[in-house]
Design brief:
The complex is a heterodimer.
Chain A: H1 28-34, H2 44-57, H3 60-72, H4 78-130, H5 147-175, H6 181-208, H7 210-215, H8 221-225, H9 234-241, H10 250-287, H11 294-332, H12 335-361
Chain B: H1 2-8, E1 13-17, H2 22-33, E2 39-42, H3 49-60, E3 69-72, E4 75-78, H4 80-88, H5 92-98
Parallel strand pairs in B: 1-2
Antiparallel strand pairs in B: 1-3, 3-4
The chains are: A mainly alpha, B alpha+beta.
Protein name (chain B): Glutaredoxin domain-containing protein
Keywords (chain B): Cytoplasm, Redox-active center
Domain Glutaredoxin (chain B): 13-77
């Protein structure tokens, strides 16, 4: 067996402790070669012992060399020989300690890596739930823990797919000259039916976890920026999409203006109702004297809990406004205009999501996102 | 029931409300915004409030809240849903005008 400086072949079995052989310090090739020689019960400890044993053996080459030296320098005192042997042992001991420390480091790193992998997996899962997309991963912090909310996220994701599909079908139908009025009417009905479904699943979600719906965490960031009581603001959407509905007949213009105006008034009224609700809750939170009895405190807190329940009504009423606006527009417009309107709306909402993705993916100056 | 009907007939528009109810506030605000001088009955500030609430619930039929409930021209119109729908579909203002609550 040859001894090459500090390179020792310590046969390590990947069995019991599942530890990788230390690389870097010791040649990896050595391990491959010597794996066949490993005993079945070999562990790091055992291999270390073998390592030590070999060192204690003081390889023949060194001994031979030593002997030759001794022969050559007959005048060399036994002390020097002994000293050299002692230095040799010392070097070997230090080498063993370094090896131990290195293995320790590897162990710690391995544990840390496992932990980080787990965290990443968890964060990824929560990111999927929190961002209304089993499709598009967006930046957002963890949200849904409530099972009703998680269920809603999944259903909402399907809804978005359905909406995109319907928008695409409508667009194609409008582009093709041979599409009949009936075919178009059917697609418009399907599109409206899909929105109706959205308001139903939102109602269930609001009853399950109203703050989740209100937070808009199930939507992308830019949609959240435009959020009004858990969704889009009807009069704002009408105003923005109006140009794409042109040309309109005189009586249609009057009706759409009226609808826009009425919706604005209804939205303002709801917003003021929300402000009133906030004030009522604030009053409950400040009603009990901080130095007063805990009983009075509990009574007012219980009141506040009851008052919070009416938040669900606001979310449902806001959705009711959205739905009514959609249905009223269907009534005012012709089938073809309604089809164009739904395409415009579907596109508009999809572009918000696209904008969020672009925003997330934008190049940054600083290194850390 | 009698008290409700009697109060409902006192003005062109009457809203049965609760001072702490945010939705009642919303409906009242909407009517005010339209220029209506609506009579507001706060059930939580009326001694017969609880009875009236029961009567209203029966009149409405459904399991929803008894307030807010709107009467126009002495006749029951309905709850928030109904009022909002009516307004968006353009039916509220004519109704108010007919009842003399609005002057164009």
């Amino acid at each position: 067996m040859t001894l090459a400086s500090t390179q020792f072949a310590a046969p390590v079995r990947m069995g019991a402790y599942d530890r990788p052989p230390p690389v870097g310090m010791w040649s990896h090739e050595q391990f491959k070669v010597d794996n066949g020689q490993a005993t079945s019960a070999s562990t790091i400890m055992e291999s270390e012992m073998k390592y030590e044993a070999r060192l204690e053996e003081v390889p023949q080459v060194v001994l031979d060399q030593e002997a030759r030296n001794v022969d050559q320098e007959a005048s060399k005192s036994p002390d020097k020989v002994l000293r050299r042997l002692a230095q040799n042992r010392e070097a070997a001991r230090k080498s063993r300690l370094r090896k131990k420390a290195y293995i320790q480091q590897l162990e710690t790193s391995r544990l840390k890596l496992a932990q980080l992998e787990q965290e990443l997996q968890r964060a990824r899962q929560q990111s999927v739930y929190a961002n209304g997309g089993l499709r598009e991963p967006n930046l957002g912090f963890t949200g849904a823990i409530d099972p009703g909310a998680v269920n809603f996220e999944i259903e909402y994701s399907h809804w978005v797919d359905e909406q995109n599909r319907n928008t695409g079908e409508l667009r194609n139908a409008l582009l093709q000259a041979q599409t009949t009025e009936d075919e178009l009417k059917l697609l418009v009905e399907i599109g409206l039916e899909n929105y109706s479904r959205l308001f139903n699943i939102k109602k269930d979600a609001a009853n399950s976890d109203v703050f989740y719906v209100m937070s808009g965490m199930w939507k992308t960031p830019t949609e959240r920026f435009f959020l009004w009581i858990g969704g889009f603001r009807p009069s704002e959407v009408l105003k923005n999409l109006r140009p794409q509905l042109e040309p309109l007949l005189e009586h249609q213009i009057v009706s759409v203006n009226g609808l826009q105006h009425s919706s604005m008034q209804a939205e303002d009224a709801l917003s003021q109702g929300m402000d009133k609700l906030k004030q009522t809750i604030a009053d409950s939170l400040t009603a009990a004297d901080p130095f007063g009895s805990p009983d009075a405190y509990m009574v007012h807190m219980a009141n506040a809990v009851e008052q919070l329940k009416s938040l669900v009504k606001f979310v449902i009423q806001a959705d009711h406004l959205r739905h009514t606006t959609l249905l009223e527009m269907r009534r005012i417009l012709t089938t073809r205009q309604a089809a164009r309107g739904l395409v415009a709306l579907g596109d508009y909402l999809q572009r918000f999501r696209a904008l969020s993705s672009l925003w997330t993916a934008r190049p940054r100056d600083s290194g850390i996102s | 029931m009698d008290r409700v009907t009697r109060l409902a007939a006192q003005k062109a528009v009457v809203v049965f409300s609760k001072s702490s109810c945010g939705m009642s506030h919303a409906v009242t605000r909407l009517l005010r915004e339209l220029g209506v001088d609506a009579g507001v009955v706060e059930l939580d500030e009326d001694p017969a409030g609880a009875d009236m609430e029961g009567a209203l619930a029966r009149m409405l039929g459904h399991a929803g809240a008894a307030v807010p409930t709107v009467f126009i021209g002495g006749r029951l119109v309905g709850s928030t849903d109904r009022v909002m729908s009516l307004h968006l579909t353009g039916g509220l203002v004519p109704l108010l005008r007919d009842a003399g609550a609005l002057w164009v």
